[in-house]
Amino acid sequence: xxxxLLANLVILSGELGFVSKTYPCVFVADSFADLVYLLDIVVQxxxxxxxxxxxxxxxxxxxGHYVRSKPFLMDLLAxxxxxxxxxxxxxxxxxxxxxxxxxxxxxxxxxMVESRTIYPNLWRVVNLIHILLLLSHWFGCFYYMLSExxxxxxxxxxxxxxxxxxxxxxxKYLASLYWSTLTLTTIGDLVTPxxxxxxAPFSFLPQAACTCVCIRSIEF
Length: 220
Hints:
Radius of gyration: 21 Å
Membrane topology: Multi-pass membrane protein
Strand order of the largest sheet: 1-2
Subcellular location: Membrane
Keywords: Membrane, Signal, Transmembrane, Transmembrane helix
Shape: flat
Protein name: Ion transport domain-containing protein
GO molecular function, one term: intracellularly cyclic nucleotide-activated monoatomic cation channel activity
Protein backbone atom coordinates (compact mmCIF):
# COMPACT_ATOMS: atom_id res chain seq x y z
CA UNK A 1 0.00 0.00 0.00
CA UNK A 2 2.78 2.45 0.95
CA UNK A 3 4.67 1.88 -2.30
CA UNK A 4 1.52 2.33 -4.39
CA LEU A 5 0.84 5.61 -2.59
CA LEU A 6 4.38 6.83 -3.29
CA ALA A 7 4.00 5.83 -6.93
CA ASN A 8 0.81 7.87 -7.14
CA LEU A 9 2.54 10.90 -5.63
CA VAL A 10 5.15 10.68 -8.39
CA ILE A 11 3.14 9.49 -11.39
CA LEU A 12 0.15 11.82 -11.04
CA SER A 13 2.27 14.96 -10.96
CA GLY A 14 4.33 13.60 -13.86
CA GLU A 15 1.17 13.01 -15.88
CA LEU A 16 -0.03 16.53 -15.17
CA GLY A 17 3.28 18.10 -16.16
CA PHE A 18 4.54 16.06 -19.10
CA VAL A 19 1.98 13.62 -20.48
CA SER A 20 -0.10 15.00 -23.35
CA LYS A 21 -1.61 11.71 -24.50
CA THR A 22 -2.78 8.46 -22.99
CA TYR A 23 -0.20 5.69 -22.63
CA PRO A 24 -1.37 2.10 -22.00
CA CYS A 25 1.22 1.61 -19.25
CA VAL A 26 -0.02 4.70 -17.40
CA PHE A 27 -3.62 3.52 -17.64
CA VAL A 28 -2.65 0.10 -16.29
CA ALA A 29 -0.67 1.67 -13.42
CA ASP A 30 -3.57 3.95 -12.50
CA SER A 31 -6.04 1.05 -12.58
CA PHE A 32 -3.76 -1.10 -10.43
CA ALA A 33 -3.40 1.72 -7.89
CA ASP A 34 -7.18 2.10 -7.69
CA LEU A 35 -7.53 -1.64 -7.12
CA VAL A 36 -4.99 -1.54 -4.28
CA TYR A 37 -6.83 1.41 -2.72
CA LEU A 38 -10.07 -0.57 -2.88
CA LEU A 39 -8.46 -3.66 -1.35
CA ASP A 40 -7.04 -1.47 1.41
CA ILE A 41 -10.57 -0.43 2.38
CA VAL A 42 -11.56 -4.11 2.57
CA VAL A 43 -8.58 -4.85 4.81
CA GLN A 44 -9.37 -1.91 7.09
CA UNK A 45 -12.80 -3.41 7.75
CA UNK A 46 -11.03 -6.38 9.38
CA UNK A 47 -8.21 -4.51 11.13
CA UNK A 48 -8.25 -4.90 14.91
CA UNK A 49 -8.01 -2.07 17.43
CA UNK A 50 -7.52 -1.71 21.16
CA UNK A 51 -10.44 -0.98 23.46
CA UNK A 52 -9.58 -0.53 27.15
CA UNK A 53 -6.34 -2.38 26.55
CA UNK A 54 -7.98 -5.37 24.86
CA UNK A 55 -7.76 -6.25 21.18
CA UNK A 56 -11.16 -6.17 19.48
CA UNK A 57 -11.55 -8.90 16.85
CA UNK A 58 -15.32 -9.11 16.36
CA UNK A 59 -16.11 -8.44 12.70
CA UNK A 60 -19.18 -6.26 13.33
CA UNK A 61 -17.37 -4.04 15.84
CA UNK A 62 -14.38 -3.73 13.54
CA UNK A 63 -16.56 -2.63 10.64
CA GLY A 64 -18.50 -0.16 12.76
CA HIS A 65 -15.34 1.32 14.24
CA TYR A 66 -13.84 1.86 10.79
CA VAL A 67 -17.02 3.32 9.25
CA ARG A 68 -17.31 5.88 12.06
CA SER A 69 -13.67 6.95 11.75
CA LYS A 70 -12.21 9.82 9.71
CA PRO A 71 -9.90 7.49 7.72
CA PHE A 72 -12.96 5.80 6.22
CA LEU A 73 -14.25 9.10 4.85
CA MET A 74 -10.80 10.02 3.54
CA ASP A 75 -10.42 6.60 1.90
CA LEU A 76 -13.76 7.04 0.13
CA LEU A 77 -12.86 10.54 -1.06
CA ALA A 78 -9.53 9.23 -2.34
CA UNK A 79 -11.42 6.81 -4.59
CA UNK A 80 -13.74 9.44 -6.06
CA UNK A 81 -14.01 8.33 -9.73
CA UNK A 82 -13.64 11.80 -11.24
CA UNK A 83 -11.11 10.43 -13.71
CA UNK A 84 -13.95 8.68 -15.55
CA UNK A 85 -14.86 12.12 -16.89
CA UNK A 86 -11.77 11.85 -19.08
CA UNK A 87 -13.78 9.64 -21.42
CA UNK A 88 -15.95 12.70 -22.10
CA UNK A 89 -13.58 15.67 -21.86
CA UNK A 90 -10.27 14.09 -22.86
CA UNK A 91 -7.00 13.81 -20.96
CA UNK A 92 -7.18 15.59 -17.59
CA UNK A 93 -4.79 14.06 -15.01
CA UNK A 94 -5.90 16.68 -12.49
CA UNK A 95 -9.11 14.67 -12.04
CA UNK A 96 -7.09 11.94 -10.33
CA UNK A 97 -5.74 14.25 -7.66
CA UNK A 98 -8.25 13.02 -5.02
CA UNK A 99 -5.85 10.06 -4.80
CA UNK A 100 -3.51 12.43 -2.96
CA UNK A 101 -5.88 12.40 0.01
CA UNK A 102 -4.44 8.99 0.87
CA UNK A 103 -1.19 10.72 1.83
CA UNK A 104 -2.29 10.63 5.48
CA UNK A 105 -1.17 7.00 5.46
CA UNK A 106 2.38 8.20 4.86
CA UNK A 107 2.30 10.12 8.14
CA UNK A 108 1.02 7.08 10.00
CA UNK A 109 3.73 4.92 8.44
CA UNK A 110 6.42 7.49 9.25
CA UNK A 111 5.54 7.72 12.95
CA MET A 112 5.04 3.96 13.22
CA VAL A 113 8.55 3.27 11.91
CA GLU A 114 10.07 6.08 13.98
CA SER A 115 8.58 4.69 17.19
CA ARG A 116 9.85 1.16 16.50
CA THR A 117 13.26 1.62 14.91
CA ILE A 118 16.46 1.62 16.96
CA TYR A 119 17.89 4.33 14.68
CA PRO A 120 15.30 7.14 14.79
CA ASN A 121 17.79 9.83 13.74
CA LEU A 122 18.80 7.85 10.66
CA TRP A 123 15.14 7.35 9.80
CA ARG A 124 14.55 11.12 10.04
CA VAL A 125 17.44 11.79 7.67
CA VAL A 126 16.15 9.22 5.17
CA ASN A 127 12.67 10.73 5.41
CA LEU A 128 14.07 14.24 4.86
CA ILE A 129 15.97 13.13 1.75
CA HIS A 130 12.82 11.47 0.45
CA ILE A 131 10.79 14.65 0.99
CA LEU A 132 13.38 16.77 -0.81
CA LEU A 133 13.45 14.38 -3.77
CA LEU A 134 9.66 14.34 -3.95
CA LEU A 135 9.49 18.14 -3.79
CA SER A 136 12.12 18.39 -6.53
CA HIS A 137 9.96 16.15 -8.70
CA TRP A 138 6.79 18.15 -8.01
CA PHE A 139 8.38 21.52 -8.66
CA GLY A 140 10.09 20.16 -11.77
CA CYS A 141 6.69 19.22 -13.15
CA PHE A 142 5.33 22.62 -12.17
CA TYR A 143 8.29 24.33 -13.86
CA TYR A 144 7.60 22.60 -17.16
CA MET A 145 3.88 23.36 -16.91
CA LEU A 146 4.71 27.03 -16.33
CA SER A 147 7.15 27.04 -19.27
CA GLU A 148 4.51 25.51 -21.53
CA UNK A 149 1.92 28.03 -20.35
CA UNK A 150 4.36 30.87 -21.17
CA UNK A 151 4.93 29.28 -24.61
CA UNK A 152 8.61 28.72 -23.74
CA UNK A 153 9.19 32.47 -23.98
CA UNK A 154 12.11 33.82 -21.95
CA UNK A 155 15.56 32.80 -20.77
CA UNK A 156 14.20 31.13 -17.66
CA UNK A 157 11.84 28.68 -19.42
CA UNK A 158 12.49 25.24 -20.79
CA UNK A 159 13.90 25.17 -24.33
CA UNK A 160 11.14 25.20 -26.92
CA UNK A 161 10.72 21.52 -27.90
CA UNK A 162 11.06 22.11 -31.64
CA UNK A 163 13.99 19.71 -32.04
CA UNK A 164 14.19 15.96 -31.35
CA UNK A 165 16.78 16.55 -28.63
CA UNK A 166 14.57 18.84 -26.51
CA UNK A 167 11.32 17.12 -27.46
CA UNK A 168 12.24 13.81 -25.84
CA UNK A 169 10.31 13.07 -22.65
CA UNK A 170 13.48 12.05 -20.81
CA UNK A 171 15.21 15.34 -21.62
CA LYS A 172 12.13 17.34 -20.59
CA TYR A 173 11.97 15.63 -17.22
CA LEU A 174 15.70 15.65 -16.42
CA ALA A 175 16.11 19.31 -17.37
CA SER A 176 13.08 20.30 -15.29
CA LEU A 177 14.26 18.18 -12.36
CA TYR A 178 17.70 19.80 -12.59
CA TRP A 179 16.18 23.29 -12.44
CA SER A 180 13.90 22.47 -9.52
CA THR A 181 16.74 20.84 -7.57
CA LEU A 182 18.93 23.92 -7.97
CA THR A 183 16.04 26.10 -6.83
CA LEU A 184 15.02 23.91 -3.91
CA THR A 185 18.58 23.61 -2.57
CA THR A 186 19.37 27.30 -3.35
CA ILE A 187 22.71 26.37 -4.93
CA GLY A 188 22.01 27.60 -8.47
CA ASP A 189 21.87 31.00 -10.13
CA LEU A 190 18.23 31.84 -10.73
CA VAL A 191 17.24 33.76 -13.83
CA THR A 192 15.41 37.03 -13.14
CA PRO A 193 11.66 36.76 -13.88
CA UNK A 194 10.20 38.88 -16.67
CA UNK A 195 6.41 38.55 -16.25
CA UNK A 196 3.82 38.68 -13.49
CA UNK A 197 3.27 34.94 -13.64
CA UNK A 198 6.97 34.30 -13.18
CA UNK A 199 6.99 36.53 -10.13
CA ALA A 200 4.28 34.46 -8.48
CA PRO A 201 5.64 33.87 -4.98
CA PHE A 202 3.72 30.67 -4.39
CA SER A 203 6.13 28.79 -6.66
CA PHE A 204 9.08 29.48 -4.36
CA LEU A 205 7.77 30.17 -0.85
CA PRO A 206 6.47 26.60 -0.35
CA GLN A 207 9.95 25.30 -1.14
CA ALA A 208 11.55 27.49 1.52
CA ALA A 209 8.82 26.69 4.03
CA CYS A 210 9.01 22.93 3.45
CA THR A 211 12.80 22.98 3.67
CA CYS A 212 12.67 24.85 7.00
CA VAL A 213 10.06 22.45 8.39
CA CYS A 214 12.05 19.40 7.30
CA ILE A 215 15.30 20.67 8.81
CA ARG A 216 13.51 21.69 12.01
CA SER A 217 12.02 18.20 12.38
CA ILE A 218 15.46 16.56 12.63
CA GLU A 219 16.57 16.11 16.21
CA PHE A 220 20.12 14.95 16.77
